[in-house]
Amino acid sequence: MHECCGVFGVYALNEDVARLTFFALFALQHRGQESAGIATSDGKNLHVYTNMGLVSQVFDEDSLSQLTGHIAIGHNRYSTRGSSRVTNAQPIVVGKGSDSLAIAHNGNIINAEHLHEELSGQGYTFRTSTDTEVIANLVLSSPDKSWVDRIRYAMHRLQGAYSLVIMTNDGLFGVRDPLGVRPLCLGTINNGWVIASETCALNHIGANFLKEIEPGEIVSITENGVDYYQEKSGKRAVCIFEYIYFARPDSVINGRLLYPARLAMGEGLAEEHPVDADLVMGVPDSATAAGIGYSHRSNIPLGEGLLKNRYVGRTFIEPDQRIRDLGVKLKFNPLPEMLDAKRMVVVDDSIVRGTTTPQVVKMLKRAGVKEVHMRICAPPIRYPCFFGVDMATRWELIAAQKTVPEVRDFIGADSLGHLSIDGLIKAVALPRDIFCLACFTGNYPIPVQLEMDKLALETMSAGQQGRSNSSE
Ligand code: SF4
Fold first, then answer.
1. Could you say which DSSP state residue 364 is in?
2. What's the pTM value of the predicted model, to 2 decimals?
3. Which residue, of 161, 204, 210, 381, is most buried by count of CB atoms within 10 Å of its CB?
4. Ligand 1 atom nearest to 241, measured from its CA
5. Cβ–ligand 1 contact at 438 (below 6 Å)
């Protein structure tokens, strides 16, 4: 499962804004690893540099030195809409002269195709296959004069998830969709302002957290200071997967630090799915905290059974077939001396397609583990995501195809237990009605466009009702 993007923006006089953006993107690297880019403005012209690869691969001193100005935005991308190629890398710049803007986007626009057709009919041309360029041209197409009103105009037409940073020649704007699906926060740095997908990016560049940008809010930063505009925002639909997996555990979303939320998920799993075992392990890194939580609550000792090669997947050198066939071995290395004849609880964040978990179970058993009891922080994922997460189609989701006991058998575990939705909400400790839980329930926060998919899914899963979330 992949999150789609991380975004960052800074408006600061007398700062090297491109360098600040580089280090902020570095802290947001977990949100997207396909391409990276930075755009700056010196008040007259926009400069942009993007390329495929990790932030550290894309930029060097030379490319950063070309990015002059006092405003910058940056982006890490994992493609959800639009293929993975350099022309789709962000920020994207559209328009001409003073009527131009640079934009970086985290999310997914559900009605992008319809808007693309409409804008093409009006003569707007598209250089990329991204929904981000649709947003940019929609802003430009507004008959309004001020940038805030033009952004408002676009917001009234857009459906879906969007946390945006937009830069014009002389302004920086942070925009969050009315559902608030993806996070976005505002901070200060010396005499300037910063906007970031996650608070962890602020900490790493010495910025101070000011507030989370509210769902439906536009933050405008110009030479006159900061202004806030609130658009209508009804139902909220914060992605619960930010808490389970996507965001870094040292980030704060909706006032909740993620690390204790993940600890509590592990504790909840121990309460809902206890088992006799000798050792608990969280699959590194995303389930490490949940593993600690399970150990605390169950009084089963915590141990490390798998060491992770932290740099795997951080290369663009294609592995040959022999290396590819190693699968999960490329990522994890077991510690047989720690594992021999043990009954293990293995805590992981989620099971999506069911391709990795069987390999992990097999690897542990080959290393001498007697029993593997899988405990999963996410309830079974039965429905695809339409809000910017590259999850899978519904036919690829193993929990849409198999009952929990069938999944247990498929992955080769001795038992399998998922945290319930109630247990998950309890762990996050925020009101249930602010969350999107659609990949578990099929209740999408924007139902209109998804009716066909949902109906098909309901028909498909009708025969699977009443299945348990655990399989001992
Ligand atoms: S469907 Fe799932 S992954 Fe997508 S936004 Fe909703 S909770 Fe997040």
1. H
2. 0.91
3. 161
4. 8
5. yes
